[in-house]
Amino acid sequence: MILAVTKGMRLGGIVGLRWQDVDLDAETLVVTQVTEQTKTGVRTKLLKADRSHCTIVLPTLAVEFLREHRTKQSLQRLSFGSAWQDSDLVASAPDGRVWRPGSLSSAW
Which 8-state DSSP code applies to residue 60? Predict the structure, then answer.
């Protein structure tokens, strides 16, 4: 994904990134949670302390990509209707569910 390429974000941070943590007008995002694969399934966990939160300044290329992606995701939401699982995730599966980090890598 564009965030891995342009900012070096780790997969768990990308999979856990929520739209509420992205400010496209300010061209920043804050990593407040990560998603990881465990033996029992997928787990998303909040970072414990504010000092663990990482604010990232986005390059114009990433902001443009994220704006387009949000539009495409809104269209997906409409096409899935009530089957859409609203997770507020930037990098959600096509039906809104959380990706397993390895699945997102494969899909990318």
Answer: H
> Residue with structure tokens 């990509």?
65
Q: What tens digit of pLDDT does each residue of 59-103 get?
A: 999 999 999 999 999 999 999 999 999 999 999 988 999 877 666
HSE toward the beta carbon, residue 87, CA cutoff 13 A: 20
DSSP state of 49: S
**Nearest 5°: CA angle at 25, between 24 and 30?**
50
Q: Which domains does the chain have, with CATH numbers?
A: 2-107 (1.10.443.10)
Q: What is the pTM of this model?
A: 0.84
In order, the DSSP letters of 55-98 are EEEPPHHHHHHHHHHHHHHHHHHHHHGGG-----BTT--TTSPP
pLDDT greater at residue 23 or residue 5: 23
